[in-house]
Design goal:
Blueprint: H1 7-19, E1 25-29, H2 33-41, E2 48-52, H3 58-74, E3 80-85, H4 104-120, E4 124-133, H5 142-145, H6 157-160, H7 172-196, E5 201-207, H8 222-231, H9 244-255, E6 266-268, E7 271-272, H10 282-299
Parallel strand pairs: 1-2, 3-4, 4-5, 5-6
Antiparallel strand pairs: 6-7
Helix pairs in contact: 1-9, 3-4, 4-7, 7-10
Length: about 300
């Protein structure tokens, strides 16, 4: 699981362990966060393993996947039956670069999980499921994001992977556009995975809805962070938003198969629903796949 050390991922990780007796949770995280979580969740003899991984660096992602694969092959870890890609970040601009020279939002929210899945797909047991946390910001309308996040603006994937894909790239608006577009890309990719992953490996998108109080905007300024962490959580008392606890429990339920969903499906909070009309585009999905494969191969050298 990625994105397990805080927010909805932290809740989901604990629920996966309590809701699936015998589960062995492997956490991929950076800067010792995974080890700390493993110590915390590993109490009462619950098996939790931490592997260091910086999702901003494709070399680090590949190394983590290879370590995990090696431990699976050696029998040090039980068979891999689920992969939860919950990590994601929103930047305040469209100019931040990853160590590989890619636009940081695209690197973390799209490419990192692609590299991880491709590296591990042959190690996934059957049946198994891959769950990617997405966002209803990909709809780009007032109903789904309350006007707080601009609509996605699709470009060629090779353009999206580089900084400056959007107008006024140094602004918060450009950073949020990169975020909504990355979430649209993730849904495109889920549809393509459903066509390409081996039979018995289901891939599902999970949308938690608006979840104030998480660390998603930790790259934002102090005022924005205060609003998201202290003011916006009040929306969770209304139907407009979801608390981190509820969203995390639902994520765990999707990972554990408690919300039966066909491969390529989209779970909106706790029910199966269609994603946006724009998100269904086989030509665009194949184009994105090809671009990610090139970037994956390029970063491997």
């Amino acid at each position: 699981m990625t994105g397990a050390t805080r927010g909805i991922g932290r809740v989901a990780a604990a629920r996966i362990l309590t809701g699936s007796p015998g589960a062995h949770l492997v956490v991929l995280a950076r800067d010792g966060g995974g080890a700390e979580l493993a110590r915390e969740l590993g109490r009462h003899d619950r098996p939790v393993t931490s592997i260091d991984a910086d999702l901003l660096s494709m070399g680090s992602v590949r190394a983590a996947a290879d370590e995990l694969a090696g431990r699976l092959d050696s029998g040090d870890l039980p068979p891999l039956r689920a992969l939860a890609g919950n990590a994601g970040l929103q930047y305040t601009n469209n100019l931040t670069r990853s160590p590989d020279g890619l636009e940081a939002t695209f690197a973390i929210n799209v490419l990192a999980h692609h590299v991880l899945i491709r590296r591990l797909q042959d190690h996934l047991d059957r049946p198994s499921r891959v769950v990617i946390t997405v966002s209803d910001t990909h709809f780009g309308d007032l109903r789904h994001n309350l006007g707080m996040v601009p609509a996605p603006q699709w470009h060629l994937p090779d353009v999206l992977a580089r900084t400056g894909a959007f107008a006024n790239p140094g602004t918060v608006t450009a950073g949020r556009t990169a975020y909504s577009t990355s979430k649209l890309a993730a849904i495109h990719l889920i549809h393509e995975y459903a066509r390409r992953l081996p039979p018995g490996v289901d891939v599902i998108g999970y949308n938690p809805g608006l979840v104030p109080g998480t660390a998603l905007t930790r790259d934002a300024g102090a005022l924005s962070r205060f609003a998201m962490q202290r003011v916006m959580p009040l929306l969770a008392l209304t139907p407009l938003a979801t608390s981190p606890g509820t969203a995390g429990r639902r994520l765990a339920d999707v990972v554990l198969g408690r919300i039966p969903t066909p491969t390529g499906g989209y779970v909106d909070r706790d029910r199966i629903a269609p994603s946006s009309m724009e998100s269904y585009d086989p030509e665009r999905e194949a184009e994105l796949w090809d671009a990610l494969e090139r970037l994956n191969e390029h970063s491997d050298h």
